[in-house]
Amino acid sequence: MKDRKMHPIKYLKKSNPERIVAWMSCTLVALILSGCVTVGPDYVPPATNVPTAWHNKLMNGITEKVPAPAGLAKWWSTLNDPVLSDLMEKAVANNPDIGQAGARIREERARRNISKAGLFPTLDASGSFKRSSGSEEIGSGKETDFYSTGFDANWELDLFGGTGRSIEASTAELQASEENLQDVLVSLLAEVALNYTEVRIFQARIDTVEKNLILQDQTHQMAQSRYTAGLSGGIAVEQAKYNLENTRSQIPTLRISLEEAKNRIAVLLGGNPGSIHEALREHRSVPACPPEIAVGVPADVLRRRPDIRRAERKLAAQTARIGVATADLYPKFSLTGSIGFESLDLDRLLLTGSRSYSFGPRVTWPVFKAGSIRSNIEVQSALQEQLLNQYESAVLNALREVENQLTAYVEEQNRKQSLSEARQAAIRAVDLSQSQYKAGLSDYTGVLDAQRSLLSFEDNLIQCEGNITSSLVRLYKALGGGWTSLSPIDINPGSNK
């Protein structure tokens, strides 16, 4: 027991490796408990000044009620279109962008694990064999074998929080990648719905053109009959002919656009162009909007939109990186040690007499680096400022998108009402002009103008109805709807590991 009261250095010289390791462990714990500090700024979420209400007056069924989470998660169900719902499910399951975002989450999770590994000691095993022979002129000239094996350990103490800040940054990046997956999902579902709406718009426009072709062909035959009977001149026949063919010429252009929209949906679903044509072969009307739409208040949008939350997590990660850079100003303390065996004879390699070891603390402190460390801190601080500006920009853009779509939804409905009345007037004008032309009370110009106007109004009305639905889709996207349609495992792949 007397040896335990001697000077620590003398005690170490007379102690075995196990006692030395125990003493160093106690010293290590004391250092950790007494000296740990975390340098760099602590992250504080940015304050956001948002209006308490929307600038646009809410009307036509739009209310400030808080959207039901289940309804917003699958907002397309309000359109009551089973074909669209089926396409949405396939897009979530098969879209390659979703897979890419999921892989990014796994990447960031692995990076966080790498950062966490910095808190623990490292242990390396090694072994070697070397055969050498000296010169006969200056030595024995005999061959000598040398065997060695052992373990090397190193443990760097995170006394100033550099590793902790690195873990903090990695965790925030992982959370940002999860928000990115959700943002990809919001955009994907909106794109599928927008392209589906375009498919229905082009199908309806083709149907309208074909219906008007029947009407114009009947008028052309009537003009031909009157010309044959000598009741009118040949100019009416030619006018009816070019009006008919001009209308017919619109069909190929509409079919091209229809094909493009179908192929865009196929790619969004992770399929080859043409893979969903059979499912969309039947012509359907544009999905009708629900009578009431709950949008909440501006603050709800900021909490719900994944792109804003992603920008906030990116800012948090960069704030932590300032601490990582700041920690480089301070000394680094580590405990190193090795134990092994060395021998000239393989049979004696693992004997007690062949054992060797070394241990001790190590300190490194950057004395002169020409200002590179402080410059790196400045770099990381400037990057943080940039990400703060990006976050603020994301907030403003989100509010802008919602306001724009609120306006578009309301004004397109007003436009629809006017176009509906114009269409009814055009139908009456076609009937009157045809009756007067058939009775010989007017020339064919009135019929021509009336038929052209009817086709134009009907085509514009279809596009207006599509614009209303598209505005609703974009409004749901701006509100951040859709991403919660994934299960937690889908949103966070590998989270159970």
Helix content: 55-70%
Overall geometric form: elongated
Mean pLDDT: 85
Helix-strand category: alpha+beta
Strand content: 5-15%
Radius of gyration: 38 Å
Number of strand elements: 6
Count of helices?
A: 13
In words, what does this structure look like?
The protein is of the alpha+beta class and 497 residues long. It has helices spanning 8-14, 17-35, 69-73, 82-94, 96-117, 162-228, 234-248, 250-268, 298-304, 306-327, 372-438, 444-478, 488-491, and strands at 62-63, 122-133, 143-157, 293-294, 332-343, 355-364. The strands form 2 sheets. The chain has a 4-stranded antiparallel sheet with strand order 2-3-5-6, with helices on one face. Strands 1-4 form a two-stranded parallel ribbon. The model is unreliable at 1-15 and 485-497 (pLDDT under 50).
Keywords:
497 residues, four-stranded antiparallel β-sheet, disordered C terminus, two-stranded parallel ribbon, 61% helix, disordered N terminus, alpha+beta
